[in-house]
Write a structure and sequence with these properties.
The complex is a heterodimer.
Chain A (H helix, E strand, L loop, with lengths): L2 E4 L3 E3 L5 E8 L7 E7 L5 E7 L6 E3 L7 E6 L4 E6 L8 E8 L12 E5 L2
Parallel strand pairs in A: 2-10
Antiparallel strand pairs in A: 1-3, 3-8, 4-5, 4-9, 5-6, 7-8, 9-10
Chain B lengths: L3 E4 L2 E4 L5 E7 L7 E6 L6 E5 L3 E2 L7 E6 L2 E6 L8 E7 L6 E2 L3 E5 L1
Parallel strand pairs in B: 2-11
Antiparallel strand pairs in B: 1-3, 3-8, 4-5, 4-9, 5-6, 7-8, 9-10, 9-11
Classes of the chains: A mainly beta, B mainly beta.
Amino acid sequence: QVNLLQSGAALVKPGASVKMSCKPSGYTFTDYIVHWVRQSHGKSLEWIGYINPYSGSTNYNEKFKTKATLSVDKSTKTAYMELSGLTSEDSAAYYCTRTGMNWYFDFWGPGTMVTVSS
Amino acid sequence: DIQMTQSPPSLSASLGDKVTITCQASQNIDKYLAWYQQKPGKAPRLLIRFTSTLESGTPSRFTGSGSGRDYSFSVSNVESEDIATYYCLQYVNLPSTFGAGTKLELK
């Protein structure tokens, strides 16, 4: 069964960076693109960007181009997202999810909650 | 970017009711529309893809329809387990964009 395991909650100070992980299982890691989605408290969902684990190619939402950096480690079959220059507005749940040939998100991780506070 | 206008923001229903949610895209999205259910503290769950195709495990009381810019999602015979927030997603173009969500509550 498909599962996306995400790293635990993080409390970080303003101006700092945080790196979170997403480790899929139950399918071939390089066959599906990994996406990241943000959900601020009580708000809707925003697509951050994707990484192709096979090629390493990335595509970012213009809004997050200077905020997020996506990477993968093919040896450990893990995807990562690093967020930099954190402010209180970055406090949110961050989900990893995947797409296949069609671009709808089918399986999701449980989310990583990031709280930015001094 | 394609804007998705979802309405209503909230709905109050009794058990057994039928409810309908709509999403309007800012341009034609050629039926590349999905619907998700999200319960508090949980990740979204895919219910419907390509406007009307039920994902495996989605009860048949959930239906979707539409074309062009206008889409709708209905829940017939609302059950207590359907209490959640529902989102539409267009995936015809990047960036993929979601509607603002509709919170379904029990009357």
